[in-house]
Amino acid sequence: MSWPAALIGEAVEEITESGAPTGDKVFVCYNPPVVNPELGIRAPYLGEAAKLALRFLKQKIATIVFAQSRLATEVLLTAIKSGVADKTGDSGIVRGYRGGYLPTRRRAVEQGLREGEVLGVVSTNALELGVDIGHLDVAVLAGYPGAIASLWQQAGRAGRRTGQSAAVLVATSAPLDQFMMTHPEYLFGTPPEHARVNPNNPFILVNHLKCAAFELPIARGRAVRRARRPEVLVGTRRRGVLHHAGRHWHWASETYPADHIVAPHGHHRQLPGDRHDRARREANEASSDHRRGRLGQRVRDDLSARRSISWRASRTRFRSFTSARTRRRSRTSSASRSTTSPMRSAPRASGSCSGSAEAPPAPYLAEQGEVLVAEKVVGFKKIKMGTLENVGSGEVELPQQEMQTTAAWITVGPRP
Fold it and tell me: pTM for the full model?
């Protein structure tokens, strides 16, 4: 059964070929130059991605730049805005797009792209799919996004018409990115990852049923059978969350169920759209912060009241920005579904002796269970704008955050 059929419980017809208009696409794998041969250090990939984007934008070529994090998005946006600003300092043809911006600002960016008022956008994977942003000619990917499916979704944002388009993958120094640079056949010959869904996963099903009942009462019969877990509804009734009356299950709690799945967006006194745990990780009075390509200073915290930061833009030209340093540890509280199997040994290096016997496989133990994840922000790094080198550090005192969740892990034993 395909994943769409498993998700909705009905037979589906798969469409495997695209009928959308498209032209020729040039795909470039760009590995930044080595700047320190002794240590094998390459030029900062964010700086190289910004330079490439500026070359396209200065030629009035509509360009989207994908970054792997919110911080990387803002660093790229700052660099690109400063490069395209005219004599009056106006750089409005380039906008940022990421979670954390107010919905009204995101809609304005989408409209500006569709109408041609915005020539370039720097985004996280928030624009990877599902949002109509009109026609773009070039996609610059600052780092391998981690999946073949994401790679082609991001590259496919450019070239939605019959004209020629281009996609440029700028590699980081990470081993996975460097593997892609030396084995481009993997990028172009590997099919996208298979989607995996399990509608009966109790951790997901319970929360989705709560949200569904909050929107509309759940009718008995077909809807409950499709849930495949009617006992879940009975369990939620016992906890006072749902009320069964006649042929329907009604929402009976005073809480908003989505609060337990996604943190609510804040009002104007909070960091717009930021989750509380993210605010704790990024918030300290010694840090600077990027907002829509501008640097400002964090001036006040009230994390205990779930108010984030009063943020004040500064006219002072910042020469560096800050990045949080965190410590994280996990502790298992229970384990289940353990299996033991032999693990294939890694292929031998090219310099190994010919004719030698292959080492026996190492056994491994695969387990799943409940874990406690603890994270604490212990300090921050000061990173120089432009070169992205570490120019200082500092310490902060913030409370430790803990989360109870489930995890899977593998323990590899010694070779026989």
Answer: 0.70
